[in-house]
Amino acid sequence: MKHRRVFYTILVFLAATSGLFAQALDWQEVQKLPPRSWISVKTNVRTYCEFQYATESKLYCHLYSDGWLMSLADPHGRRRGAYKTFNRADIREIRGEKYDDSRAPLDLILAAGGGGGLDSNHQPTSFAGVKIGGTFALDLQYDRIQAHSGFSTEGSAVIPLFRVPRFQSDKQIKFVRLYAEPGVGYRAGDGAFGGYSSAKVMAVLLTDTWSDKWPSPYIEFQRRFPFESPLQGDNRLSIGVMLALCKQC
Prior knowledge:
This protein is mainly beta and 249 residues long.
């Protein structure tokens, strides 16, 4: 997807300005790199890609794929996508890069959770539901507000903000990443609401390698604003588990 490739390019540019790059590599060092090492190749322009292998005269590199689904499509574990070949004579410089993969958007979210909160009259509410999607997510929930049952459908963007602790290229550690989720939804059933806008913040426990495919715990805070009466919304806190996959899984 074009917008995703632009996003990754911006992230790599930010990494370049932060001094995370390793020293330039000579050709013998390049040939010894393990496959899928993150590198940049400078010809008349600089290209960021995953190293495949190098012969005496050529370097083979893998550009961006569209995510983990492309990996699953290949039974041998090779990710399909765009590949690029560089002639050694055209290369001015090759650098090994330190790129924080956890900064990429999520490709897949499968989550289940529930919780409670307070409505505008300070009365307790409860709810449970599921979340599916990736860069954009869909929430389907059943709730109880002022003793009335209802169902809500909500769509929201999932925007990565920051992580704690910060990325360290020489360590693989667990971390908490924060996401902003602006969205809109509709509640059907007895009681209040109807259409509404939503502001959410979600914290998810993840790992640097993204290799753990087990569900991760998450916590999410939400404020809903009904279109007809924005001040009569509610605050909600939910806890659950999430299967979260990303580009580098």
